[in-house]
Amino acid sequence: MSINFCTAEEAVKLIESGDHVYIQGSTSTPEVLCRALADRGHELRDVTLYSAFAVCKGPAPYCKPEYKDSFLVDSFFVSNGVRQWIADGYGVTTPRFLGEVPALFRDGTCRVDVALLNCSMPNEEGYVSFGVSADLATAAAECANRVIAQINPQMPFSYGDPVIHLSQLAAAVQVDDPLVEVPTAQPTEKEICIGNYVAELIPDGATLQIGVGGIPNAVIRALENHKHLGLHTEAMTDGVLPLIEKGIIDNSLKKVMPGKSVASLALGSRRLYDLMDYNKDMVFKDVAWTNNPFIIAQNPKVMSINSCLEIDLTGQICADSIGTRIFSGIGGQHDFVYGSQQSEGGLSFLTMLSTTGKGQSKIKPVLTPGAGVVTTRFQTNYVVTEHGAVDLRGKSLPERAKRLISIAAPEFREELERAAAERFGYSFLRLK
Hints:
Strand order of the largest sheet: 4-3-2-1-5-7-10
CATH architecture of the largest domain: 3-Layer(aba) Sandwich
Distance between the termini: 73 Å
């Protein structure tokens, strides 16, 4: 099917001052369109740019002091492209579970006038796919009155929600722009210990939600002797490919979309993107669906595996900020923690190294002032460091403190014991 292409400069002329513009995320930021939009900064004012979970090629081109009145970045998940801009006070972040953002678009709380997408080549019926990023892009494209797309042979055609017909595009720009590739993080010895602790608690037939990074990859490596695992996750990464290729992830025991590996976005290498292309065994869905706790809970033995930045002695989890500085976002952590615990036989794991890169304890008497609580102490299940795994479910505050201290770095345990004794008194001291 022929496409009437225009230049990126012509396409972004459809954006007007005062518009609210969604920019696709994951590893598929439409960089060509973003550069063309930034070049119009001198003639635009008060354009709100929604960004979300993304791995960009570098700082966003519209994040420059001369554009501070042209573009307001409103981020639902602070990515590398806008992190410094927001830290400097030019942009803002809106606290929301990622799975709730589509509802903000659909009910008009967050208006979407324009959606900027990075799409595949069309299929025989004239549909293009926004491949690696269904997440928020599905709702944004549905709600926008102008959809502008890069048509990019580098984008895989994925099945599920992220498709749109060429006739629905207000403008199409021909590009050949490689997607960002996220190398598979090689786990360290300490991360391998964490992976082994988690894997020992995961039964055959479990449905996995796995985050991104060295610790999740260590968990995956430790699952190679498991059987009949399923995948229902927010982000699909290269880490799961060996389990899929070896048939360890076969999705045979899932209740929701059995036989299919389900995600809302992909972060990986060209190998993953090529495997996704026209692969009916991989399905990408709107993040409002993948992260719905009540859908998650329908699968058996859901194992939710996520990372955190620090935890206090009562089990409060911080995963999005370093003190007052917003570092990232919470993505689907809360949704999968809740959904896994409603699943029959489900468990949730919050994982981290016991110390920071500067040698400070990540298990603390109280959270760093300004740190945000992502998972409340009422929801925390397993916490895992390289020193072990402890289950906080159903445990009193003094019991939680005792268990968490047992998996802290040894050099900090005495200090944490004193803090716990001062806070909880005899109820802590009497514990053996």
